[in-house]
Amino acid sequence: MKLLLLLLNPAIIGLVALFLSVLWMLRDERDKTRPVLVIALVINLIYGFLLTVVLGRADSWLPWKYDYYLLRMDQSLGASAASIALPFQGVWRIPLIVIYQLMVPMMIFWYLRTRKWNSQGSVVLAYVAEMVAGPLMYAILPACGPIYAFGATWLDHPIPPAQVIRFSGMPNAFPSLHVATAMVLVLFANGRWWRAISIAFLAATALATLTTGEHYAIDLAPGLAFGCFAASFGHRRMRTACLYLGMVLFWALAIRFESALLIASPGLVRSLAAITLALAIQAVWKEWRMPITLVAGIARSKGAWVGETDLASGLSLLVVEPLQVGNSSNSALARAPLHNRDAH
């Protein structure tokens, strides 16, 4: 188990991916897109380190966390991370930990695959949107996740009153960037089998974020909306992107400033979650109905096309939620940096 945790360490995964990408680049020096991937991985490692440092300092800037609020939101939602995680402890937890750490390889693979049908620039722009907007969301509603807020007792911790608590931990729980990025992969999937794979990966990622204690259940719905925002940004649909981002902001501000109303109105919380889920499903349905050639044509006509030799297109290939070491032996893994990690 210790060896598995070591191999799944975000830093180890990043270094191995960088090493393999260098070997892949050297196999065909005529392919000008391969150095882009290598540079993107290098920048991702640097970005992950810097983000960890920044969020580490943000811990002192934002010492008060809203984890108790999110736990009460789970209660109103009628589904908590702990209740979902309990049946998946023991040996079942291992494959879920692996899935949780598969985000970086999946993002690399999706980048390499989508460039073949001329949407490389779009998926990279989606990663950029997550990279920039994710930390801002964390600052609006600072929270760390149940395993960090409650330690080893997170699976059976009593429901506390909705109040801010002060503890050391990087705020990177709300919304879930793991779920958001998996949603981006769904919205950039093409072909029946790849779409099925992306949906399965999204479902498994959502389950993994809960069973590892990294997120509250309430983090997932805004995570889907955040993924729709990033994908819309990647397609240069700025008005639609703003609408989805506004939805995430609404969730964050409502939980922070109107928690009493939401706690007293479980039906309202469930309705908002259902509406968010329905809009995410609608986004997938509309995207999948659009022919691939039309998607590429729209992107080029709007100036969204980024050529395969454009170095800038690879500068933000990877986005993950930032590294955080759990303060309990029950912590499954460190969070991977905003994709070295959620970073949520």
Structure description:
About 14% of the residues have low confidence. The chain has a two-stranded antiparallel ribbon with strand order 1-2. Helices cover 64% and strands 1% of the residues. By secondary structure, the chain is mostly helical.
Sum up the structure in keywords.
344 residues; mainly alpha
- Count of alpha/pi helices: 16
Task: Kindly estimate the percentage of residues that lie in beta strands according to DSSP.
Answer: under 5%
Category by helix and strand content: mainly alpha
How far apart the termini lie comes to 24 Å
Query: Radius of gyration in whole Å, from Cα?
Result: 19 Å
Q: What is the residue-averaged pLDDT?
A: 77
Low-confidence regions: 293-320, 322-341
Report the sheet with the most strands, covering strand number, pairing sense and barrel closure: 2 strands, antiparallel
What is this entry, summarized?
With 344 residues, this protein is mainly α. Helices cover 64% and strands 1% of the residues.
What's the layout of helices and strands?
Elements: H1 2-7, H2 10-27, H3 34-61, E1 64-65, H4 67-77, H5 81-85, H6 93-100, H7 103-114, H8 120-140, H9 146-150, E2 165-166, H10 177-187, H11 192-211, H12 220-234, H13 238-257, H14 259-264, H15 266-289, H16 292-301
Antiparallel strand pairs: 1-2
